[in-house]
Every structure is written in C-alpha cells, then in structure tokens.
Write a structure and sequence with these properties.
This protein has 276 residues and is of the alpha/beta class. It has ten helices and seven strands. Helix content is 38%, strand content 15%. The structure holds adenosine monophosphate and manganese (II) ion (3 copies).
C-alpha cells in the first residue's frame, strides 16, 4: 500500500527545513505521496516540486489556510492546488497581510507580562520575510529561557487566556473553500480534534464546511489520538466528507510524529486521493 503524508511545513512558513530537504526526508522515510502545506503561502511549492523530481515520490502541491470561525481559529488544508492561480494567491496575500501587525500585538501582550523584546526576538527565527507566526515567538521564548521546548510554550503563552494571545480575524470558511476550489484544489479541515469545540460545535462546523462545498477532513493527524482516528472517520462518513492524513511535520525536534509515521487510513472512509 502506498504511503501518504499530506500535511507538512517548510521554511516558507514555520517549518525548520527548506522545501527540498523536507521532500528528501519524506522520500527517505518511504512516503510515496507527499504534500507541502505551508501556512498561508505557496512560495515553497516550486522548489519542493523540483526536488521531488529527483526522488520516486509523487509531489502534491498544497497549503494550510488560517480561518476564523465563530470564536475559533480553524485551519483548512488545500490539496492539489495550482500555485499560479490568481484568486488563491490574492486570498493568501490577504491572510498574510495581517500577520505583522498581529505580531506587534503579540509582543505588546508579552511585554505587559514582563517579557520585553519579543517582536525583535521572534523576527530572528523568521525564515520567510512574508510570514511571522506564533511558532517564531515560541522559538524565541525557548531561546530566551521562558520554556524548555516549544510544546511547553503553548501551555503558558500564546494561547487563549495566556500572555501573548491576541484575537485576530483571518479568512472566513466560505472564502477559504472558494479560493481553494478556484485553484482546482480540495479543501480539507486540518486536525479537527484540536479545536476546543463541543460535539454540537463540531457538527455545526462540519455542516457549514460541507455546505460551503468543503471536500474532506483529516482523519489521521499527529494531533489525534487513536480514539480520535475512529471518531473522525465516523464524522467523515456521517458528513459525506473525504478522509485525509498528515503528520503536520515542522522539523527535527519540533513534531510529535515524523514524516510518513501515521498508519493507513481506517476502513470505511473514502480517501481524498480517490478523486485525484
Ligand atoms: P499562527 O498561525 O501564527 O497562529 O501559529 C500557529 C502555529 O503555532 C501552528 O501551526 C503550530 O505550528 C504552532 N502551535 C500552535 N499551537 C501549538 C501547540 N499547542 N503546540 C505546538 N505548536 C503549536
Ligand atoms: Mn505551524
Ligand atoms: Mn494547523
Ligand atoms: Mn500544519
């Protein structure tokens, strides 16, 4: 059975490895179908596609779009997109445009909690001029001794109710689906098990997503427990959504799972790749 890993990051967003290195690592780890899905940016896709041609894996161009839904930030994975599409490109530019001002507000919030210089500190970890994220703040906070590793950072900082968390308006759910479809891609709800919503909220989210034309959900994710694999397989069936799988790899030492480490999709779901 071919191995799929359809969610990962490079230095074009908050990953630690450049696109070619992530592709080579995926190939070396036995991944047959691999998607690079940087946050709100498709800048690394050409480099990744070129690197993939030197390996035996099949490259899938993707992205991970930031969306505001009710009071939550939701991530929507785009798969099999045309990176040159103008509608998607303009949409991603719009999402990214708020990030720098947000970063200043994050730094102000950390300063109020007694942590000065966070904006400049986070900037030192930025690897693409176009994108500053909470991951870069997390790396600064580890480097400055406020936490042992990035996973610990999010328990005390940068998340709702903690220093360094700020509200932000990303794209809307229908916009994200529309832009992805304009680029010929599939829209997939990333790591649904990570959102702090009730069962009713999850049904409302998936119902609205499906009604907006959304295609699938990640059933397998490094953010999910085995029990959640079964839970989201059931959601996929109930809502008539396709199933996807992805490690959400960010780089050595920063991820729960390495590339290609997830098991095969459970039986009874329709994989996203049946439509490719
Ligand atoms: P942003 O898009 O700027 O809000 O940054 C979100 C990124 O922060 C995610 O893509 C993850 O890479 C990272 N992140 C968020 N929450 C956590 C967490 N609990 N543990 C580790 N990384 C996280
Ligand atoms: Mn990330
Ligand atoms: Mn995500
Ligand atoms: Mn991700």
């Amino acid at each position: 059975m071919p191995r799929y890993d359809l969610h990962s990051h490079s230095t074009y967003s908050d990953g630690l490895l450049p696109p070619a290195a992530v592709v080579q690592r995926a190939a070396a780890r036995g991944v047959d179908f691999y998607a690079l899905t940087d946050h709100d940016d498709t800048g690394g896709l050409a480099e990744a596609a070129a690197a993939a041609r030197e390996t035996s894996l099949t490259f899938v161009p993707g992205a991970e779009l930031s969306v505001s839904w009710e009071t939550h930030t939701i991530h929507i994975i785009a798969l099999q997109i045309d990176p040159a599409n103008r509608v998607l490109d303009a949409g991603l530019a719009a999402i990214r445009s708020g990030r720098d001002a947000r970063a200043h507000r994050i730094a102000d919030s950390l300063a109020a909690a007694g942590i000065p210089g966070a904006y400049e500190g986070a900037r030192k970890f930025v690897t693409s001029e176009r994108l500053i994220s909470r991951s870069h703040f997390a790396r600064f906070l580890v480097d400055a001794g406020y936490a042992k590793e990035t996973k610990d950072v999010f328990k005390r900082y940068l998340t709702q109710g903690k220093p360094g968390y700020v509200e932000h308006a990303w794209a809307t759910l229908p916009q994200a689906v529309e832009w992805i479809h304009a680029a010929g891609g599939q829209a997939v709800v990333a790591h649904p098990g990570r959102y702090r919503v009730t069962a009713t909220g999850m049904r409302r989210l998936l119902g609205q997503f499906r009604d907006a034309g959304g295609d699938g959900i990640e059933v397998l994710s490094a953010s999910h427990t085995p029990a959640q694999f079964a839970e989201y397989a059931a959601y996929a069936r109930t809502f008539g959504l396709l199933a996807s799988t992805g490690s959400d790899y960010h780089g050595p030492g920063e991820s729960w799972l390495d590339l290609g480490d997830l098991p095969a999709l459970p039986a009874g779901v329709t994989p996203v790749w049946t439509k490719w």
